[in-house]
Amino acid sequence: xxxxxxEHTYQAGSQLxxxxxxxxxxxxxxxxxxxxxxxxxxxxxxxKYATDMQFFIYCEAGMIALLGLVQYLLLSAKGKFVSQTxxxxxxxxxxxxxxxxxxxxxxxxxxxxxxxxxSRTGLVINKATNPYPGxxxxxxxxxxxxxHGNDIYLMPDYFAVRMEEELMG
Length: 169
Fold this sequence. Notes:
The protein is α+β, with helices and mostly antiparallel strands. It is built from three helices and nine strands. The strands form three sheets. The chain has a four-stranded antiparallel β-sheet with strand order 1-2-3-6, covered by helices on one side. Strands 7-8-9 form a three-stranded antiparallel β-sheet, with no helix packed on it. The longest helix has 36 residues, at 14-49. The radius of gyration is 22 Å and the shape is elongated.
């Protein structure tokens, strides 16, 4: 009789989940700060240039474009990285099933959690550098799992030690 379990599931520690939630709140706060700047700028420009409506509209359009770009730059890279970060991994004999983190950014920038099943045969595992060492301080090393053009990032320092052994074994 086989006493070995067929599947092993590992979940990320609460520290990683708290870091992701804090990052999301920080990015939302920064975007709302940009919105407040836009409102203050609009009030100032309307007060100063209410008689020249065409100039006012051009200034508003320029400010909206600038703050939209700032918000995009704030959210795009970090949001993509978070939505590609593993929070749960299940090993079976021939496959690895991964659940990634949800990124619930402000307003228009939301990325859902993905459930990805990878075959062990076509999986490429590379060590990568931590792109955000200020955020993920305990991630001393990082693995990038590549499968059919999909990149998924695994931070083994936030999981049980046995998970890394099983991934490499």
